[in-house]
């Protein structure tokens, strides 16, 4: 069975337990996943004040500087991992320190061919809608 790829997104959480240097040492988690090859890549993210939100409506690009009032939680990091299935990826995410003091969002990546098919399907649907 071929492993699938999953994006683990880490966020702050107002209801999270307080961060603890003893309980939340990221090196402990890395020591368990890196030797196995589960973790492909990951990194911490900078603060909301460094972020930009980009939108494009009717051809006009708008850029907003962070922080963003509409977000009560913020992305603080990510890891790209491999796992046999969503349950295994969720278990891996549950061991990350952020699961205790923040949140871990586990997102399956589309298979490349599936992603291409979905893109073409979306393009066709938009063309059909524009023709009406």
Automatic annotation (TrEMBL):
InterPro entries: Dimeric_a/b-barrel (IPR011008), YCII (IPR005545). Pfam families: YCII. Transmembrane segments: none annotated. Residues 6-109 form the YCII-related domain. Belongs to the YciI family. This is YCII-related domain-containing protein. It comes from Pseudolysinimonas kribbensis.
